[in-house]
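Notes to self, Prephenate/arogenate dehydrogenase domain-containing protein:
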Amino acid sequence: MSTSRSLKIGIVGFGSFGQFLAKTMIKQGHTLTATSRTDYSHSCLQLDIQFFRDVRTFIEANNDVILICTSILSFSEVLSSLPLSCLKRPTTLFVDVLSVKEHPRDLLLRVLPEESDILCTHPMFGPESGKDGWKDLTFMYDKVRIRDEDTCFNFLHVFASEGCRMLQMSCEEHDKIAAKSQFITHSVGRTLAEMNIESTPIDTKGFQTLVQLKDTTMRDSFDLYSGLFICNRFAHQELENLQHALHKVKEMLVQRMSEELSPKHD
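result:
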């Protein structure tokens, strides 16, 4: 049975989500390094994390885990820019945290050295929903290619030890479900935003929920939303389904109106 040990974790992309994860990892006693296109050296200094402007030096830092925290649309470009030939540990564990899963899995399998391990994950929470702790929040993962079970166990323990609900699932199954749940949620929220819905003096509870959905959705970037569409092959059909369903509901209303307004015969 594995026992947890501290890891050397290198984070690629140190924006808000990378920093959010890093704070808990540091608290747990792991050693962190980071690199990013933006200079986050000041933020890293406050967290006691070594920041590398030079990505080659970062790759040479002998990390157990390289955690890629970029956006969906920039993932391919960032991954291909890493000087992977400079890796000191052949069995380095590469982890992604994107909201789509087949896309990063396929890129990691294509680009990484054969010796590298691959863990695809999706923490189903973020800086807002996880600000008071991660207990009972869902952490999805797929062990795509794991030889070093010990390092993989220790990385997953970062989330398990915080009380996350650990859910092992294939990347394909994740994307099928996410297209029906996460993508549809964002699509409805953005549609409501296009309609400029706002609170009124006579809001029902249901309408308040819709306004809240719109506000929550619009806090995420359009880059994230478009990434959920472009990089999840199942999302295209779900958008068609949503459009078809709205058309169907309209047809039902028009049909009922026609029946009600037509002359009645005793």
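- Residues 235-261 form the longest helix (27 residues).
- The radius of gyration is 22 Å.
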